[in-house]
Fold this sequence. Notes:
The strands form 3 sheets. The protein has a 7-stranded mixed sheet. It folds into 2 domains: about 1-290, Metallo-beta-lactamase, Chain A, CATH 3.60.15.10; about 295-405, Thrombin, subunit H, CATH 2.40.10. Helix 5 runs parallel beside helix 6. The chain is an alpha+beta fold. It is built from 9 helices and 21 strands. A hairpin with a 2-residue loop joins strand 17 (about 310-325) and strand 18 (about 325-330). The chain has helices at about 45-60, 105-110, 180-190, 205-210, 220-230, 245-260, 280-290, 350, 405, and strands at about 1-5, 30, 40, 65-70, 90-100, 130-135, 140, 145-150, 155-165, 165-170, 195-200, 235, 260-265, 270, 295, 300-305, 310-325, 325-330, 340-345, 355-370, 380-390. One zinc ion binds near residues 11 and 174.
Amino acid sequence: MRIKFWGVRGSTPTPERRNSRYGGNTPCVEIRLANGTLIILDCGSGLRALGKNLLREFGERPIRGYIFLTHFHWDHIQGIPFFLPLYRKGNAFLFHSVLRKGNELQGAVEGQMVGPYFPVNMSVMGAERDFHDLDEHPVNLNGATISSAPLNHPQECVGYRIEADGGVFVFATDTEPGSAFHDKTVRELARGADVFAYDAQYTPEKLAADKKGWGHSSWLEGTRIASEVGVKHLVLFHHDPDHDDFFVDGLVEKAQQEFPRVSGASESTEIMLPKGSARQADLVAESNRRQENRYQIELPVRVEWGRSGGQMYTADGVSRDVSRRGIYFVTSGEVRSSQPIQLELVIPDEVTHRGDETIRFLVQPVRQDDLNGAHGLPQAKTGVAGRIYPEEAPPIAPTGLEEEDEAP
Length: 408
Ligand SMILES: [Zn+2]
Ligand SMILES: [Zn+2]
């Protein structure tokens, strides 16, 4: 079974640069069984990108998906109107919830697509849709066993346990510790899981101080449950909108002191659970690799920097090597700055299929090479290695400081 996180943020989407490594989309997890069955857990804003990916993958072939919703708070359903496969005739999606009254499931899903909230209603969606409210008993689905447990959350929520292909994935988000009944049900659900994704929205301090009753938990409770019931790997999930990447890094580090195998859910996280056992070493290695990877990507870059005398300069170039922390690019011009430079990386439409996309960030140059046409680019004059600013850095401004560069 392959598990891919498309949205990991809690409460509201946070499309901000400081959040971009873990990601700003609200909850959505894709599960693919070895036999190809598509299961989707929650439909937060991450569902939109999953939809586009499915269309690319399936082409004209029909898509059939089994959607399981934990509850109907906006951050768990708001991706549905933007899930393109729902608009295509021939596709089929079966929505599931657990122990909801009346036709609450269908009403909740369709109810967000009515005026004055949305321009068209769900009847314009060509895909076949079906709604199933399950009872508390496990269901069998194309070789997977899916069970649920009630969680402690306002207006109620459930966690899901998916056992398939010899692996166990447990998804328990939007839950608060402190109710004896739910503390027990979440432990039963998580018992022996290969991967346990758990609500870690608040710090333990914040949870104890002023977030009681909001229905969320902390990394500390996650590590306690993981240790008590033999979880193999804990994934912290439902990150707080106000927690930037470095803050989440800090929470993961604290959690690792209590329980060794923890990672923070990020939109790029993909986990394989092979038959028989979870290869935890691989999982940890995968999350470490993600921190260290360097990618040889040649993409157009545009550089802008300030110089003495108040002028701004620009140069065009090509990226050669990009990692989480740094970039190496070559340019036909000269980049004479010891100050942060603004860099734009253009990912062309041939790659994105949704128009050119420009990524802007600040880079602190740390080394410049005189290339004289090396690197296979006859016009390449300068190679620049720079450190990418992890968060908001001061705006670039004309400066005279780079004159120091000129000194012998
Ligand atoms: Zn939520
Ligand atoms: Zn909620």
